[in-house]
Design brief:
One of its GO terms (cellular component) is cytosol. The protein has 214 residues and is α/β, with parallel strands linked by helices. The protein is 39% helix and 18% strand. It has one domain: Alpha-Beta Barrel (TIM Barrel).
């Protein structure tokens, strides 16, 4: 079994299983030996031709699929078309479903930090919540860490934020970037001043612990 080094991408990897591929529930078609996350993205709550009720029905079935490792992207985005109240409702639905199905939650967040923290306090999840594609400053990273979040870094980020994240709360991802995950590991290892192999082993253990342990 391959433990994925890339926890969030929208592209199928060359070797199935090397990355967790994010999919919409209504278009999920798994490759053999691939790993996936599925969720209702805040951008597409209202803009899709598929109804929200149908998306929820698909999602509730897919979270029990053996190749689906995580819920997400779920999130809050003040630039999305859907109202923030509807986004909160859909996010809370997914967060509670993640708890019921014993899955970590991968989060898309834009300009809604306070709202997210309030929801975390309300829901009090046991399963990890992971901010994907984190680009904020170190002070925001510290705020998330105080509230128990994990942080995943892609191609663009603040170097000081990457440096301060404890090793057991850290993930790397390609998201929509064409930069390889190998390059991202090499760069992150230089910033953290550790060997690339050490960083890979650290993240591998995190992935195994968070995404595979039931």
């Amino acid at each position: 079994m391959i433990i994925p080094a890339d926890i969030h991408t929208h592209c199928q990897p060359e070797v199935p299983g090397e990355a967790i591929v994010n999919c919409f529930p209504e278009t999920f078609v798994p490759q053999q030996e691939g790993w996936y996350s599925v969720g209702i993205h805040p951008w597409y709550i209202t803009s899709s031709t598929v109804s929200l009720a149908e998306k929820k029905r698909c999602l509730e079935e897919l979270l029990y699929h053996p190749q689906v490792l995580a819920m997400g992207e779920a999130g809050l985005d003040k630039l999305a078309d859907a109202s923030l109240s509807l986004q909160r409702e859909v996010f809370e639905y997914q967060a509670r479903l993640a708890e019921e199905t014993d899955k970590p939650l991968v989060i898309h967040l834009v300009k809604a930090v306070d709202e997210l923290l309030k929801l975390k306090q309300k829901i009090r999840p046991v399963k990890p919540w992971i901010i994907h594609g984190f680009r904020g400053k170190a002070v925001l990273a510290e705020e998330y860490l105080r509230h128990g979040f994990h942080l995943s870094f892609g191609e663009r980020y603040q170097e000081e934020a990457l440096r301060i994240v404890p090793s057991d709360r850290l993930f790397l991802e390609t998201d929509e970037s064409m930069t390889s995950i190998d390059t991202l590991y090499e760069r992150a290892a230089m910033i953290r001043k550790i060997p690339s192999g050490e960083l890979r082993e650290t993240v591998r253990k995190n992935v195994e612990e968070i995404f595979f342990r039931r």
